[in-house]
Specification:
Blueprint (H helix, E strand, L loop, with lengths): L1 H11 L3 E7 L2 E14 L4 E5 L5 E3 L5 H4 L1 H5 L9 H9 L6 H13 L22 H13 L13 H14 L7 E4 L5 E6 H13 L3 H12 L10 H8 L4 E6 L3 E6 L4 E7 L4 H15 L4 H11 L6 E6 L3 E2 L3
Antiparallel strand pairs: 1-2, 1-10, 2-3, 2-9, 3-11, 4-6, 5-6, 7-8, 8-9
Length: 321
């Protein structure tokens, strides 16, 4: 199989390119690998190398939220749908977001000082990962696990998340490679193809917890990032038919709900503007969102100075057997 991938990578379908133009001159070129997988992890379409490895970063959040549900922790919170969505989000620290993170802690009588995400301005509640961290703590409280060491790789909660990911990807637990993310929580080093498979599973509604997570995200898109931010705008523009969750350093994962297919892409140099431009280019190619709505998102998210624009070259192509 890998020789086929290599052949595909070197000849048939090179990586996508996002080219920043200033006037009629090229200023920067970004190289992007992208893959669409089904829930069995089979490559359906790709550009570049589907086995390209990177950290999944914040795109892991919907899967880190699984124990929050499976433990029963979320069900003790009123209107838990918002809390679940916030646990999956990288929010903007608005009042809406900080209150929801506080509400998760309040439901379990957890002191805010237990939050170990970096403190922004007055409080760690403003950190864009505070929902994930609050959900981690609520799960620990529910299961009588230690609160002070909840981010350590050998903490029972983190070990359970690793076990869940290895089960979803059908890979040995020993293949799970974790490092510390910027918020202090573990994130995983994996193939783009594996990221796409996770999102295919999120879209397939076969797993009860993932179905609840998918529904919570679609019903509360503003909790995932915020108005005029990429992920929220994608979910809203598609009327909840496309789930989008970005990660730092040029990672973007998307899926088409109920179709059991996931899309993952990585910009080699980590550029955020490139991942947004390429994601919209691919959503247009796949016809997952109408041209009109994509144009609307471009106007809100891809803001360039006069005379500057970004052009995307290349397409996803079907995997040849």
């Amino acid at each position: 199989m890998s020789s086929n991938f290599k052949n595909l990578y070197t000849s048939n379908n090179p990586p996508l390119q996002a080219i920043l133009m200033r006037g009629s001159n090229i200023e920067s070129i970004h190289k992007i690998h992208a893959v669409i997988s089904d829930k069995k992890g089979r490559v359906l379409m790709c550009a570049g190398n589907p086995e390209y490895k990177s950290f999944i970063r914040s795109s892991l959040k919907p899967f880190q939220a699984i124990p929050f549900i499976s433990s029963g922790a979320s069900s003790e919170i009123n209107n838990a749908s918002k809390s679940i969505a916030l646990a999956c989000g990288s929010h903007s620290g608005s009042k809406l977001h900080t209150r929801e993170a506080f509400r998760i802690l309040w439901a379990y009588d957890i002191d805010i000082n237990y939050l170990k995400c970096p403190k922004l301005s007055r409080s760690p509640l403003y950190n864009n990962c505070s929902g994930k961290h609050a959900a981690f703590l609520a799960t620990c409280k529910k299961l009588n696990l230690p609160l002070d060491s909840y981010l350590k790789g050998d903490h029972p909660l983190q070990k359970e998340i690793f076990r869940i990911i290895s089960e979803l990807l059908e890979i040995p637990l020993t293949n799970i490679c974790a490092e510390r993310d910027d918020c202090g929580a573990p994130t995983l080093y994996m193939k783009l193809l594996e990221m796409a498979k996770l999102y295919a599973l999120l879209s397939s509604s076969e797993n009860a917890e993932l179905e609840q997570i998918s529904r919570s995200i679609r019903n509360n898109p503003v909790m995932i990032s915020d108005k005029n931010k990429f992920d929220t705008e994608i979910i809203e523009a598609s009327h909840g038919q496309v789930i989008s969750k970005g990660g730092a350093e040029g990672i973007q994962c998307l899926c088409k709900v109920n179709e059991g297919i996931g899309l993952a892409l990585k910009v080699e140099d980590g550029s955020k503007r490139a991942k947004h431009a390429v994601s919209l280019h691919l959503l247009r190619q796949l016809e997952w969102i109408s041209d009109l709505r994509i144009q609307d998102i471009e106007d809100k998210v891809l803001k360039f100075a006069e005379g500057v624009q970004i052009e995307v070259k290349g397409q996803l192509k079907f995997q040849e057997s």
